[in-house]
Write a structure and sequence with these properties.
Rossmann fold; globular; seven-stranded parallel sheet; alpha/beta; six-stranded parallel sheet
Length: 377
């Protein structure tokens, strides 16, 4: 069968690549064409456009690149219809993907499936109309989404979470000791504070400086940054001239395996950090932070921003978002989780509850099986 897949950022590339691998097990003759990244390309098929050409974040960057964004959309719509796949599989990235879904449903009979639901439960709930109209089947990776969509009379399939798969697969095969990791990356013997500053340039620019200032207040620890996919080490050079830290690229899971604690920009990385059982502070800085903190009360429909807390249904990890994301607050919370054993124990217990709610590994395999079965029928 022919599969057209659209993933517009690094996390989507990871999860889509795992889905592609699982689809090949179900369908050895699977033919792929996709918008995605290097991990998807490693599974075979034709990469039409790399997500690096699409990942614009924030009002101003989006505004400045509107012509490119609309050009990518037009090209993608025409390319999907020209390829005429047996199914179009959309992976997160809602602003782009929901537009593609609407066009494809209007101009063809190609079934549209969505893997990793848009986070409309957090904001833009009105998009449920588009999903009910344009998406034939939705595969959810977050257990609390089932109730949300049921409220809107739209049946979805909870398939488990691909982060569980990825982390479990990594831990089962990773044999590198702490000493070997330190030696390979030219680190020192101090325990590690991992810095996960985001996958986009704007996220990094907004969050990394405050992370570095706050974490540098703990000289008994070394600071190690997880280099983001698609971001060259040279991009971090200006920050290195101000604060001392190390960079490890392509080794985020290994870094988390050996970290004592972590400062994590809100997103999928917060959940991955929890699955590695590493105590963390969730960070999300943005321009006009105080104003955004006020607007958050009116815009967001959920009490938390991190997946860890949303899945647990309570505050397991501290969220420092918008106006709360200050160096002083970061230092205070970092000191608490580094020195307070009771705090760390409570966080570990919360992580255990999250793992239980997510269920066992196998999200990619379950999704691939459901997709293949439905297409055969």
């Amino acid at each position: 069968m022919k599969y057209y897949i659209i993933a517009g950022e690094a996390s989507g590339d990871l999860h889509a690549s795992n889905l592609m691998r699982a689809l090949k097990e179900q369908d050895p003759k699977a033919d792929f064409r996709f918008f995605g990244g290097d991990l998807m390309a490693a599974q075979g098929g034709i990469c039409v456009k790399h997500y690096r050409e699409m990942a614009y974040m924030g009002f101003l960057p989006v505004l400045l690149h509107l012509r490119t964004i609309y050009s990518n959309m037009r090209f993608c719509k025409e390319d999907v219809l020209g390829y005429d796949p047996d199914v179009l599989i959309l992976v997160d990235y809602p602003g782009f993907n929901l537009s593609i879904a609407q066009y494809v449903k209007k101009h063809s009979l190609i079934p549209v499936y969505y893997y990793i639901s848009p986070k409309i439960w957090a904001w833009k709930e009105y998009r449920i109309r588009n999903i009910k109209r344009d998406v034939d089947r939705l595969f959810s990776i977050l257990p609390f989404e089932v109730g949300f969509y049921k409220k809107h009379n739209y049946k979805i399939d909870y398939v488990g979470n691909p982060c569980v798969d990825a982390v479990s697969r990594f831990l089962s095969s990773y044999k590198e000791t702490q000493e070997e990791f330190i030696l390979k990356n030219e680190l020192d013997e101090r325990p590690i504070i991992a810095l996960l500053a985001g996958s986009r340039r704007q996220e990094i620019a907004d969050n990394l400086p405050k992370m570095l200032v706050a974490a540098s207040a703990f000289p008994d620890y070394q600071l190690v940054l997880a280099g983001a996919p698609g971001i060259e080490d040279a991009y971090y050079a200006p920050y290195l001239r101000v604060r001392k830290f190390s960079i490890v690229s392509g080794q985020t899971y290994a870094l988390l395996r050996h970290a004592s604690t972590a400062l994590v920009t809100s997103g999928t990385a917060t959940l991955e950090t929890a699955l590695f059982d590493v105590p963390q502070v969730v960070c999300y800085s943005m321009k006009a932070g105080r104003l955004m903190s006020l607007l958050r009360k009116f815009v967001l429909k959920v009490p938390f921003v991190s997946l860890v807390n949303l899945i647990a249904g309570r505050e397991v990890v501290k969220e420092l978002v918008a106006g709360d994301m200050t160096v002083a607050n970061l230092k205070e919370e970092l000191a608490r989780i580094l020195s307070n054993k009771h705090c760390r124990r409570e966080m570990h217990e919360g992580y255990a509850a999250v793992r239980h709610a997510l269920g066992k590994p196998g999200a990619s395999e379950r999704t691939a099986c459901l997709i293949h079965e439905s297409l055969r029928q």
